[in-house]
Amino acid sequence: MATRTKDQATAQRTATRTYQIAVIPGDGTGPEVIREGRKVLEAAAKREGFALNWHPYDLGGERYLKTKETLPASVVNELRDVDAIYLGAIGHPDVTPGILEQGILLRLRFELDQYINLRPVKLYPGVWTPLRDKTPEHIDFVVVRENTEGLYAGVGGFLKKGTKDEVALQTSVNTRVGVERCIRFAFEYTRKRAKRKKLTLCGKTNVLTYAHDLWQRVFNEVAKSYSDIQTEYTHVDACCMWMVKNPEWFDVIVTDNMFGDIITDLGAMIQGGMGIAAGGNLNPEGVSMFEPIGGSAPKYTGKNVINPLAAICAGSMMLEYLGETKAGRAVEQAVMEITGKKLKSLAAGKMGYSTSEVGDLVVNALAR
Ligand code: IPM
Ligand code: MN
């Protein structure tokens, strides 16, 4: 693909409604869920009259085992030119944990400066939640997770490694620019979402008296320009408590990278599990990447039993992000129809349907 400027790319895709999508099926069950996601997105594109051009990349454990390559610089450069990236899963049982996660997933987030990780926590109709007495009206919030800094920045080191005096340091990096752009995004998002117009900052200001002092100050400062948004602060431990006890309390939560990682797994569980939880790694000025938030699930690989709905929901987010709002919402609506009326469970192997049948069910619901 010839290099395009951002403006050229935007102009081109608005005029033609043809989107260049890099697809990274990745490891484990990634390829199976991405196959179903593509099937559904193709159906949505056909219905709404736009086109998706898929550009597959074989990044992942198999390629690493063969070539020792995780993410070649040439691939990163090609990815800078697409309209979006659609990712399955990264993580392989024969590769030391961390190599692929850091070498591919985190590096993509960092290199493409995808500074927001947007993770909706929404209980769809008919989906089982471990929270007794909670229904879809109680569980519908979004976590805005900072995605390029904090403890994930890779700053630290060892002293006297392997000795009894060993020291390990891992530093949380919080830049004024990084914190501010994340918080601004969260305020804008809360306003556009236009639900309860409430933004909660989740931190640990009583202990992280430097890092989260910065977060708190920036939050209060930015809040001044958003008088229509109600603001609130919660410590991360209390946040976990409220997510279980009173999830209806939340509309949008903004938090740092590590806390965002942790609370969104809790969020995934209360919305019905990893089978449904999706997220977007966003660079609002660049290239964004959409993924189911669960892992590569090696034990289910190749069995056609994994739930593809999380990947399908990630695809729905991608369409909305590309400006194909109607198609994105239609996909989400189709998912809501089948979770409510068809699937017995969202767990792998217990859905009452195979992976590909679930994809077909969504396609059929879309056609109605
Ligand atoms: C996630 C994952 C990643 C993270 C891992 C695989 C590095 O848990 O997307 O939440 O910690 O961000
Ligand atoms: Mn995680």
Secondary-structure blueprint:
Elements: H1 6-16, E1 18-26, H2 30-48, E2 51-56, H3 61-67, H4 73-79, E3 84-89, H5 99-111, E4 116-122, E5 140-146, E6 150-159, E7 167-173, H6 176-193, E8 198-203, H7 211-223, E9 230-235, H8 236-245, E10 252-255, H9 257-270, E11 278-282, E12 289-292, H10 309-321, H11 325-341, H12 355-367
Parallel strand pairs: 1-2, 1-3, 3-12, 5-10, 8-9, 8-10
Antiparallel strand pairs: 4-5, 4-11, 6-7, 11-12
Helix pairs in contact: 2-10, 2-11, 2-12, 6-7, 8-9, 10-11, 11-12
Could you please describe the fold and organization of this structure?
The structure is a single chain. This protein is an alpha/beta fold and 368 residues long. It folds into 2 domains: 1-124 and 273-368, Isopropylmalate Dehydrogenase (3-Layer(aba) Sandwich); 130-270, Isopropylmalate Dehydrogenase. It is 42% helix and 21% strand. The chain contains 12 helices and 12 strands. Strands 2-1-3-12-11-4-5-10-8-9 form a 10-stranded mixed beta sheet, sandwiched between helices. Strand 6 and strand 7 form a beta hairpin. Helix 2 packs across helix 11 and helix 6 packs across helix 7. The relative contact order is 0.17. The model has no long low-confidence stretch (mean pLDDT 96). Manganese (II) ion (MN) binds at residues 261, 265.
